[in-house]
From TrEMBL:
It is found in: Gas vesicle. InterPro entries: GvpL/GvpF (IPR009430). Its main location: other. It comes from the Bacteria. Pfam families: GvpL_GvpF (PF06386). This is GvpL/GvpF family gas vesicle protein. The keyword Cytoplasm does not apply. Keywords: Gas vesicle. The keyword Lipid biosynthesis does not apply. Belongs to the gas vesicle GvpF/GvpL family.
Length: 238
């Protein structure tokens, strides 16, 4: 029977997963497949898994339980193997890579920081600070029919917003990146101009939390800074 694989841990991880049920319509018992040096946390699966709410929740619940006793290597949702022997084969073949990856995240957790600011706030700042943009906007509002004016204003504003978002992201990253052992930048989305993951030693997380509080308190320009964590270190698993 096929197995769904949640995570890989070192052999000394306690894997306290008794009583947990996993993904799938029947929610099979979560269990361990072990080799001499590693453990994989798995459950039997009889169907193709899709990211339904129940299954995503079950997947994350296993990760959270494992995080209570040490940092695993979390696998992304949906990873399956043909059977237990196939899992053991991968663990044996990739033992050095897994050991290196486990050492990399040992005693750490991932924290994600997103920062957002409404485009309208950037636009108001640009019109206040840039005389050319202000003139173009006033001419258009006054009824100018010159088609070049909206095109120029659009290009100017787009370039200015892009630069201001980049500057704001760099400013925040400059404060936050030194607080992690490693960091990973993710693509921006919507009004978010920063999507940053940090790999933070658990005993140093208080410094990050304090820095976040100070940034939120100091920013009075409409910037929203959201901190999520501790999380399994998905962004730092090769």
């Amino acid at each position: 029977m096929a197995v769904y694989v949640y995570a890989v841990t070192s052999r000394d991880h306690p894997c306290r997963i008794d009583g947990m049920t996993g993904v799938g319509a029947h929610g099979a018992t979560v269990r361990v497949v072990a080799t001499e040096e590693l453990r994989a946390v798995v459950s039997d699966i009889a169907e193709e898994i899709r990211p339904k709410k129940r299954d995503v929740t079950a997947h994350q619940a296993v990760q959270d339980r494992l995080m209570d006793d040490g940092t695993p290597l979390p696998l992304q949702f949906g990873y399956t193997a043909p059977d237990d022997d196939a899992v053991r084969q991968v663990l044996d073949e990739q033992v050095d890579a897994y050991r290196t990856a486990l050492a990399r995240v040992r005693d750490c957790a991932e924290y994600n920081v997103k920062a957002a600011r409404e485009q309208d706030r950037f636009l108001r700042e640009i019109l206040d600070a840039n005389s050319r943009a202000r003139w173009l906007n006033e001419e258009i509002r006054a009824g100018s029919e010159d088609p070049r004016l909206p095109m120029e204003l659009g290009r100017l504003v787009a370039d200015e917003i892009q630069q201001r978002r980049a500057d704001a992201a760099a400013d925040l990253a400059g404060v936050l990146v030194p607080l992690g052992r490693e960091h990973a930048l993710h693509p921006e989305a919507g009004d978010d101009f920063l999507n940053l993951s940090l790999l933070v030693p658990r005993d140093e997380a208080s410094a990050l939390l304090k820095a976040h509080e100070e940034l939120v308190r100091e920013r009075r320009d409409g910037t929203e800074i959201r901190l999520t964590g501790p999380l399994p270190p998905y962004s730092f698993v090769p």
